[in-house]
Every structure is written in C-alpha cells, then in structure tokens.
C-alpha cells in the first residue's frame, strides 16, 4: 500500500521559515524522513507540496482513487494555513473517504486563536501536532497500524 503525504502552502519554505516555530529542517529533509519511515513499514510513498488549494484538492482525489482500489494506507495532510480556512479540502476528504491524519509541525493550540480551529479535524481519523517534523514519521508509524 501507499502513503500519501501532502503539504500545503508555505511548507516549501521549511528550514528558513520562522525556524523558532518550525525548526531548521527543510522539506527535502522531511521527505527523506518519510521515505525512511515508509521503508521501515514496507509502504510506498507519494510526497508532494503545493501552494495552491485546488491542486491539493486534485491530489486528495488522486489519493481517493487509490483508496477505492484498496491501495491507500492513509493520507497524511499538513494543509498549512488552509487548515483554518478551507471547506474545499474538508469536502475533498469527506467526498473521497480517505483515512486522514491531520498533521501540524507546531502545536497550533498554543499559538494564535485563529489557528485553534481546523476545518479538517471533523473528517480526520487522527490529528497530530507539536512534534516538529518528527511528527511526519510518527504519523506514518500510526498509518502503518491501520
Ligand atoms: C502548520 C500550522 C498552520 O497554522 C500554519 O498556517 C502552517 C503550518 C504547522 O505545520 O504547524 O502553515 O500547519
């Protein structure tokens, strides 16, 4: 089976973006970490990032087709700021029925109040935040148990 790891807006800036919050690791580091985690569990990996909401919707649909074929282990989604704004991403998850891990590098609940609400949580099977980029590996470890 395959794990989809999708990253939303500004996550391409990891490493230089507010390092006191998101750490010094780059998105390429995160991808390498995900590859290692998937290899440990014998899972395939699709790892992508987009700054465009519609592109993320399309990719969730793609994960949904894999899910329909019984070939998706799970979707790990760090939707970035779209977490707090996007009904479209929520509808894509609901509409495809993909098993979702909502992931955040930072502990969003310890930050500004506008980050406390997530449109995605209601459709998520699991929510993980605050473990830094290590959370990606933890999410994949969790998905491997599903
Ligand atoms: C984030 C938290 C969001 O509030 C923020 O907009 C991001 C990153 C995180 O990984 O901690 O872009 O999803």
TrEMBL record:
<dbReference type="GO" id="GO:0008652">
    <property type="term" value="P:amino acid biosynthetic process"/>
</dbReference>
<feature type="binding site">
    <location>
        <begin position="105"/>
        <end position="106"/>
    </location>
    <ligand>
        <name>substrate</name>
    </ligand>
</feature>
<dbReference type="InterPro" id="IPR036441">
    <property type="entry name" value="DHquinase_II_sf"/>
</dbReference>
<dbReference type="GO" id="GO:0009073">
    <property type="term" value="P:aromatic amino acid family biosynthetic process"/>
</dbReference>
<feature type="binding site">
    <location>
        <position position="91"/>
    </location>
    <ligand>
        <name>substrate</name>
    </ligand>
</feature>
<dbReference type="InterPro" id="IPR001874">
    <property type="entry name" value="DHquinase_II"/>
</dbReference>
<comment type="subunit">
    <text>Homododecamer.</text>
</comment>
<dbReference type="Pfam" id="PF01220">
    <property type="entry name" value="DHquinase_II"/>
</dbReference>
<dbReference type="GO" id="GO:0003855">
    <property type="term" value="F:3-dehydroquinate dehydratase activity"/>
</dbReference>
<comment type="similarity">
    <text>Belongs to the type-II 3-dehydroquinase family.</text>
</comment>
<keyword id="KW-0456">Lyase</keyword>
<feature type="binding site">
    <location>
        <position position="115"/>
    </location>
    <ligand>
        <name>substrate</name>
    </ligand>
</feature>
<feature type="binding site">
    <location>
        <position position="78"/>
    </location>
    <ligand>
        <name>substrate</name>
    </ligand>
</feature>
<dbReference type="GO" id="GO:0019631">
    <property type="term" value="P:quinate catabolic process"/>
</dbReference>
<feature type="active site" description="Proton donor">
    <location>
        <position position="104"/>
    </location>
</feature>
<comment type="function">
    <text>Catalyzes a trans-dehydration via an enolate intermediate.</text>
</comment>
<keyword id="KW-0028">Amino-acid biosynthesis</keyword>
<dbReference type="InterPro" id="IPR018509">
    <property type="entry name" value="DHquinase_II_CS"/>
</dbReference>
<keyword id="KW-0057">Aromatic amino acid biosynthesis</keyword>
<comment type="pathway">
    <text>Metabolic intermediate biosynthesis; chorismate biosynthesis; chorismate from D-erythrose 4-phosphate and phosphoenolpyruvate: step 3/7.</text>
</comment>
<feature type="binding site">
    <location>
        <position position="84"/>
    </location>
    <ligand>
        <name>substrate</name>
    </ligand>
</feature>
<feature type="site" description="Transition state stabilizer">
    <location>
        <position position="17"/>
    </location>
</feature>
<dbReference type="GO" id="GO:0009423">
    <property type="term" value="P:chorismate biosynthetic process"/>
</dbReference>
<feature type="active site" description="Proton acceptor">
    <location>
        <position position="22"/>
    </location>
</feature>
<protein>
    <recommendedName>
        <fullName>3-dehydroquinate dehydratase</fullName>
        <ecNumber>4.2.1.10</ecNumber>
    </recommendedName>
</protein>
């Amino acid at each position: 089976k395959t794990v989809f790891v999708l990253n939303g807006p500004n996550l391409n800036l990891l490493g230089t973006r507010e390092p006191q919050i998101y750490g010094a690791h780059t998105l390429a580091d995160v991808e390498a970490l995900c590859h290692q985690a998937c290899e440990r569990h014998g899972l395939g990996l699709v790892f992508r990032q987009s700054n465009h909401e519609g592109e993320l919707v399309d990719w969730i649909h793609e994960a949904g087709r894999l899910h329909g074929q019984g070939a998706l282990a799970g979707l790990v989604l760090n939707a970035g700021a779209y977490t707090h704004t996007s009904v479209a991403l929520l509808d894509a998850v609901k509409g495809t029925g993909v098993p979702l891990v909502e992931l955040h590098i930072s502990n969003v609940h310890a930050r500004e109040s506008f980050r406390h609400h997530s449109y995605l949580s209601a459709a998520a099977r699991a929510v993980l935040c605050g473990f830094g980029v290590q959370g990606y590996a933890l999410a994949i470890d969790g998905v491997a148990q599903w």
